[in-house]
Amino acid sequence: PANAIHLPPWTGSPTDKELVSFIPFLEYIAAMELPDVRDCLASFANTHIPTEYARREAIAREKFHKEFAERKSKKSRSGSGAGGSLLSSFGLNGVAMAGGAGGGGMRMMTPDGAPEESLSEGFAKGKTYMDQVRERGQRQYEFLDREIRENGDKYLQEMAAEEKKLQDEAMKGMQAKFFGGFWGGGGGDGGEEEGKK
Fold first, then answer.
1. 50 near 7, Cβ under 8 Å?
2. pLDDT tens-digit map of 20-58
3. What are phi and psi of 111, to 5 degrees?
4. CB count in 10 Å sphere of residue 98
5. How far is CA 55 from the centre of its chain?
6. Nearest to 86 by CA among 71, 107, 108
7. Where are any strands of DSSP class E within 7-160?
8. Rounded to whole angstroms, what are the CA distances from 86 to 33, 102, 115, 119, 124?
9. Helix ranges (DSSP H) in 79-128
């Protein structure tokens, strides 16, 4: 299918890093929130996607830093801010970063509660859009990993207790329906027997 990535079967080798090498490309697809991945995948036809993506990203990064240097130079001459112009020049003005804030508006918070760096602030530091997406993803992963390590047992116990509660409630409901119908169905016969006596 045109919306799938074909990979050779995993042979069980611990040195096989092929799937891991796709992470930057998959991050890109997720960050861009593409409505249809088929055109994107078609542009990588007959290539090794991780290698080709790395090549394209290197070209884009070089172009970004060149334009960044030019805009920084213009900013120093004009005295105007470069954050918004950088956003618009890369077609990202107001674009929401996956899992966070865009160029302006309400400031998002990191998992630890600190203010999240905005896109314009990241651009002003020379970070590409994907650099910022990866940094944010890394912070979220580290926070989740820490939460699991520190509170994993508590979460598992809470989940088990909730599951048991739901099972008990479901069982009580089933028993009420079964026994209620069973005994209720026999009530009429019992009345007829009483009348015959």
1. no
2. 999 999 999 988 888 899 999 999 999 999 999 999 999
3. -55, -25
4. 14
5. 25
6. 71
7. none
8. 21, 13, 21, 9, 8
9. 83-89, 119-124
